[in-house]
Design brief:
The protein is of the alpha/beta class and 249 residues long. It has one domain: Alpha-Beta Barrel (TIM Barrel). It has 9 helices and 9 strands. An 8-stranded parallel beta barrel has the order 1-2-4-5-6-7-8-9, surrounded by 6 helices. β6, α6 and β7 form a beta-alpha-beta unit.
Amino acid sequence: MPYFEIVAHRGVPTEAPENTIPSFERAIDLGADAVELDVRLTRDRVPVVYHYFYLDEATPLSGPIFDYTYDQLRDVEVLGTGGNSIKGCRISTLGEILETLGGRIDLEIEIKGPEPESSGIIGSILLDYKHLWPSIGITSYEPALLLDIKQLCSGLPTDLLFPRSEEWMGLDVVAYASAHRARLAGARAVHLHPSQLSPEVVSTVRSHGVDIHAWDVNDEESLNRIVKLGIPKICTDELQRALDFRRLI
């Protein structure tokens, strides 16, 4: 059975608010190979680590991230729900995350966009952390943003994120479209959902020189599938489940 890397999606959101330093620290404590984090731009073009366009309803501010400057956001407390609520969690800049986590765990950085300049802004920060590049991968749904990063940060690995299939889409189209969109982006790999994986999809995509990683791998059925297909890296919301599964294979 092949070994696979485990990426903690936004840290460990069940124990600390997602995309916050405590959530990432918990992933390190549990033994994740990497953490996934999302980067958006504020109104004054500061890259901050936050998944959604809109601020959480529980925060003192409301509305989209892009309506606020970083100075307006820096002291906003990010509140979790239920058992994952921890006081003192803040929205971090990408630079703060690199300083805090760099060298301690691998980082999978998703450029959310959609601003054309977002890749250049993020890339200029990453140029100051070349010593961390062996432990960093860049992902995006936008091929153009990945192409920009590759040009600015030559040698930094990039992967294309592929969305869930629409109802009409068969696995033959998944294989064809994901492989060619990844080629369009110059990506090392394409990230597919477990429902999009089959031996034929894997062989077709790899025949184009593109590897496959998997996202939303949260149950035993999905874990068994990625092992049978030899998928080398997964992203999961159920970190402990994935770690326990891997120990047994």
